[in-house]
Structures are given as C-alpha cells and as structure tokens.
Write a structure and sequence with these properties.
The chain is about 30% helix and about 25% strand. The chain has 16 helices and 34 strands. An eight-stranded mixed β-sheet has the order 19-14-13-22-23-34-33-30, sandwiched between helices. The protein has a six-stranded mixed β-sheet with strand order 3-2-1-4-11-12, with helices on both faces. Strands 6-5-9-10 form a four-stranded parallel β-sheet. Helix 3 links the parallel strand 5 and strand 6. The chain is globular, with a radius of gyration of 26 Å.
C-alpha cells in the first residue's frame, strides 16, 4: 500500500489508494515534531498491508530558515578557509553600504585548512601528511563541531585527497559530508556551500528520518521514502545521508502533481501556483515537464544540487498582517502557522490572510476547513476591529490584506514568466494548496492568463505528486570540453553534424561512467533505471550555462535556448560543454486518476445555498456549491464559491466554470 504524506505549516496532507479509490486525509501539523502528524495519519488510515510511506518534509527547509542546524566544521585547501564566507563579488544591493553580511553557516573558529593541492587537470601536486591529519582531527574535536563538511579545490577532478581526509575524520563519530560524493562540479564557492548545507542538516534531518523510519517499521511494518527537491523519491537512508537534496521536498511534489493533472486535462504549458499556510510556491512548466536547476538559493544559501525551478514568497493563508513604522500595511513573511494559527482558528490573535478571506465571505463558518477546523467569525471580527488602526472598516482592512498578499504573489509569477521571456498569457494557471484556489482567478485576471485549472483534491496536490513520483537519482561531472566553430563551411547542418560526431566520442566515456555508478546504486535497492542525459553548455568566455538534452540536436538546442532566454545567439562562436548530467529513473506503479460519469450541464444538485461575498468593493449574492456533488459536464457562471474538504475556490463575476472528466474545475477567466 503506497501512502504519500506532505507535511505543511498548518496541515499535513495524506493521499493514498484504497480499494482502487484515491483517498485524502488531512490532520493538523505538529510544530514540535512533524513526525507525530505523519504517524497520526497512518494510525487513522490503519493500513491492512505493510505501507510504502512517501514523505514530503519541511525539516530541512525550516532548519535553514530558522538557522537551527548543526555546528559545522568546514575543511578545505589551506589558504581558502574563508571562501565560504566571502562568496561571490556580486552585491544584491549595489549602492547599499549598510547591507547585511553574506549569510554563512560556519563560524570563523570552525574553518580549517589542509596543506594539499590538486591541479585543474586532476594531478595530485601535494597530499596531506599523516601528522597533519591527526592534528586536524583534534582541532575539529576541540571546536565542538557536530558535523563536518569537506570540500577541497579540484576534488571533482581527482577525489583522492578528499577520500584520505574523510577516512581520517571518521574516528570523530560525527556525520561527514564530502564534496566529490555530493556535488563533483567546479565553482568552489557553490560546491562548498552545498556541502556545508548538507552537513548543517545532517544531524537534525538524519535523526528525524531515522526516528520516523524506525517508528513506521516497528508499528506498521512499512518502509519510508522521501521526496527530493529534484522531483523524485529516494530511500530514507539516503535522504538522511544527503538531506540537502530534500530542502524543497513538498513544493517539488506540488510541481510534479500539477504537471500530471494538467497533462490529463489536456494542458501542456502551465504555471503551478501552490499557496499553503506559510508560503506560496510558483513554477513554470512547459511540455517538457518540470525541470531542475542547479542555481537555487534556499534561505539565502546557494544550493547547487538539482532542484526544481520553484520560486517561493512568504505569502500564505497564515501570513500575518501588520503595520510598519511608517503605518504601511504589510503581509508576511511571518506566519501564524498551526500554533497559534489564524484568529478564526480560535487561538491566534494577529490578523492573517485567512481571517481576511473569512470576513469577506469567501470562507464559511458552517463549513470546517480540512474537515477539522471550525471557524470563529465573531472572534475574528472583534480582533480585526482592534487591529485595523485608521482604516475605515474591517472590510476595507480585509480587502487591503488580500490586495497586498496578491501583489506579492503576482510579482512571483511575473518573475518566473515575463522576466524570463515567457508570455504568461500562453499558460494555464494550475492552482492548489489549501489557499491557492481562493486567489487564483484574481491573479489570472491581473496577469491576463485566460484559464485557471483547479485540480480535484486541490488542497493535496503536493501529496498527490509525491504519490505519483518515481525513484530518481541525479549524477553529474564537470568536463570542460570546447567545441570550436568552423568558419570555412557555409552549410550549417553539415557543421552541426560534424561537431556532434566529434563531441559524442569525447562525451560518451563520461556519460557511461556516471551511468555505471547509478546502475550499481539502483541494483543495491533491487531497481533498474532508465538514463536521461543532459549537459550544461555556454559560449566560450561566459560565466553561466544553460542545460539542454544531450542528443544529436544538443548544439542547435543550446543556440535556440540561448536566443529564447537572452534574445541573441552566435552559431559561429565556440561552445563549451561544462557539466554532464545523468538522471536515472526507475518507473514505478502507475497511479490512475479516477474518471467520473458525465452528467448534464445543470449544477443545481450541488448548490447548497446563496450568500453575500465581497468582490472588489461590492457585496454580491453568490452561489455556494459542494464540490463533491459536482459532476463532469456541469457548468455555471460566477460569482460562485466552491467548497470542498481540502480547499475553497472563488469564481469571480464574468467567469465561467466547467467540470471536466477528472472532476477538475476548468475556469475561463
């Protein structure tokens, strides 16, 4: 029995198949230990067979955001100890002389250098002496370090010195993260930062996953897998060793789930919009599916392992509304979370986006959120009245909260679309998360996006994506191979064919070596994998790369992608192949989404009542539908509210809705 559980800031979502039916369960998240909510979900499900539990976890993300990870010792080549703090020369605020220092997870007293050197071609010029290794172990022990990160210069070309260091440091009995295993690529700062992040999370995430896995095995005789940030699952044992691969675990599940749902609905190009209790995650996905990037920053820390290209902003249903020193209304990034939660949950005392939605009529006290939270309107109105300051009415205060939150989310969508050369009007906005459908139509209108898709079980699409994901492992290697141009020939196709034949002969041994490593790892788990090859390319002299599939159209594909991204391409300029990447995928059992029997266009059997809801500055009489009673083929016009177990959808005036064969709401905005 396969069960997917996604831990969120407010709710823990659980999706599973039982008796051929896809089922959903929501429980309140446990702030003290997210594993308690996972175990509570399993106890409520009471699986009859040993379950395969697939977990989307925020433990790594929260540790980075809250800076609650381990005390890390950083070991590198002597003379480069402070590169982890110096970073790159680029300044985010060029003219701000009072800018905060670059965040660093390693204090100065925990940075250590070793006398060693490897050349750029991989030749060992100097190796660490035995007495130096003994002294290093004593220094690390005396520093009070709970975890060690080792990242030597050019270890991606020859890891021998790193292996010696790792062997010597094992006697300390603490987790050791080594760069040639986690990220064998060039760029010493990003590589070191990624390995340090892994070491920073190794103690907390490792203990959490080991403890949870032991509970599941003992109580349910089940196994535990963890969702990676790259869009595939790995075993809990591997996730505990390399927790940096799970820092965007839940959002990655959302991107995978949105893509699969949209494909079935007939949409290829989508913008995934996931609004939960604490944050909003947006990603642009075209016909090629969710694609990872190696240039992510999580909590201002560069992380270069493959991560789906997801942009996150601190605006969610639980985001706090507050006034700054100038009296300007601000929303987020602080959140009420599950404890104490929004005012309307009965414990919180600060206004949130959820409270604003309730007072505008978008949520309903008669319809509990997630089936377990009864909303308190009178308490919410009383405390919102006290908090509104000079704003004329509590309704105007609520409208202001919504506008501020939506402007932040609109900027996030523009960042991943318009600012990257993609026209948002050519995409479908796929909204999910407990709060996503409340705001999707408003955002679509602001961005001129014509269609909104609200999936069935909208509040648990991240868990659904985790359920549908495959076992995936990513491998990479820096090669630095230059493909020169041939200006003597005028036949472009001939040039490309010749270049590819020459290049393939050079790349094949490297690709094969990566695939051999991956297949051996999969074999240990009793799996077989399908290899997908890609490469990071750039024009000679550039400092950034673009990832394209490694096939006979690779070079032409690079030129096209460069033109699309930056507006120009130069086919006569030498091209550098920087990194090679292999993604090994083990296809799992296919999860079929259920189709319901079609009905006529009349949605009246699902109509529960009519009530006033505020749209813009007006209260409008609005139809309220029970989504579980809507049938494929039903159609209706806005204004409308569609309530379901896991989410609430707002359909504004002049918008139309049709229920498709998979019970998705397809909204023409």
């Amino acid at each position: 029995m396969r069960i997917a559980i996604d831990s969120g800031g407010t709710f823990t979502d659980c999706v599973y198949v039982e008796g051929g039916l896809l089922k959903l369960l929501k429980v309140l998240s446990s702030a003290a230990d997210p594993g308690n909510s996972v175990l509570e979900s399993l106890r409520r499900i009471r699986p009859h067979h040993p379950p395969e539990v697939r977990h989307g976890t925020t433990i790594g993300t929260n540790a980075l955001l809250e800076r609650t990870g381990a005390r890390v010792a950083f070991v590198t080549t002597a003379g480069f100890e402070d590169t982890i703090a110096i970073g790159r020369q680029a300044r985010h605020n060029l003219y701000n002389w009072m800018a905060s220092p670059r965040p660093c997870l390693v204090p100065p007293e925990c940075r250590f250098g070793v006398s060693e050197r490897v050349s750029e071609s991989g030749a060992i010029l100097a190796a660490p002496r035995e007495e130096e290794l003994v002294a290093l172990c004593e220094q690390v022990r005396s520093s009070g370090a709970e975890s060690v990160a080792v990242s030597l210069l050019f270890s991606f070309q020859n890891p021998e010195n790193e292996r010696r260091l790792a062997t010597a440091l094992k006697q300390l009995g603490i987790p050791i993260s080594v760069s040639h295993q986690i990220l064998p690529e060039f760029r010493e700062y990003e590589r070191a930062s990624t390995v340090v992040a892994n070491a920073y999370l190794a103690v907390k995430a490792g203990a959490y996953l080991s403890r949870l896995e032991a509970h599941i095995e003992r109580e349910f005789r089940g196994s535990l897998y963890v969702m990676q940030s790259s869009g595939g699952i790995i075993s809990a044992k591997l996730a505990a060793e390399e927790p940096v691969r799970t820092v965007l675990s839940g959002p990655a599940g959302g991107a995978v789930g949105a893509h699969r749902v949209a494909q079935l609905a007939g949409f290829k190009n989508i913008i995934a919009f996931d609004m939960g209790g604490t944050s909003t995650d947006v990603s642009l996905i075209d016909s090629l599916g969710p694609r990872p990037t190696s240039e992510a920053r999580v909590a201002e820390i560069p992380v270069s392992v493959p991560i789906l290209d997801i942009h996150t902003v601190g605006a969610g249903g639980g985001s706090l509304a507050w006034f700054d020193r100038g009296g300007i209304l601000t929303v987020g990034p602080m959140s009420a979370g599950a404890e104490p939660g929004p005012i309307c949950y009965g414990r919180g005392e600060q206004p949130t986006v959820t409270d604003a939605n309730l007072l505008l009529g978008r949520l309903d006290c008669d319809l509990p959120l997630g089936g377990c939270v009864q909303l308190e309107e009178n308490r919410t109105r009383t405390l919102m009245e006290k908090a509104r300051r000079a704003i004329p009415s509590v309704e105007e205060f609520s409208r202001g909260i919504i506008r501020v939150a939506e402007s932040e989310m609109e900027r996030a969508i523009r960042l991943i679309s318009v600012e990257r050369g993609r026209d948002a009007r050519e995409f479908v906005l796929v909204c999910f998360g407990g709060a996503g459908p409340l705001h999707a139509c408003s955002l679509a209108r602001a961005l001129a996006i014509p269609w909104v898709l609200v999936p069935a079980m909208a509040g648990a699409v991240s868990a659904l994506g985790i359920l549908m994901s495959e076992v995936v492992r990513d491998y990479s290697r820096t090669v630095m191979i230059t493909v020169s141009s041939d200006r003597r020939s005028f036949d472009h196709q001939v040039i490309m064919a010749k270049r590819w034949r020459e290049l393939k002969a050079l790349l094949e041994p490297h690709f094969t070596a990566l695939e051999v490593i991956g297949e051996a790892e999969f074999l240990k788990q009793g799996l077989t994998g399908i290899a997908m090859r890609s490469a990071d390319l750039r024009y000679a002299g550039q400092g950034y790369e673009l990832n394209v599939p490694a096939d006979d159209r690779m070079l032409e594909g690079f030129h096209r992608e460069h033109h699309r991204r930056y507006g120009h391409a130069d086919r006569d300029r030498p091209v550098e192949v920087v990194n090679l990447r292999v993604r090994l995928i083990s296809p799992g059992e296919t999860i079929e989404l259920p189709k319901a029997e079609r009905a006529d266009a009349d949605p009246s059997p699902a109509l529960t009542k009519k009530k006033p809801v505020m749209f813009g500055e007006r209260w409008l009489e609005t139809s309220v539908f029970d989504r579980h009673r809507l049938k494929p083929g039903n159609r209706f016009q806005g204004p409308a509210v569609v309530h379901e177990y896991s989410a609430t959808t707002i359909v504004p005036p002049e918008s139309s809705v049709e229920v498709d064969d998979f019970s998705n709401l397809v909204i023409r905005v």
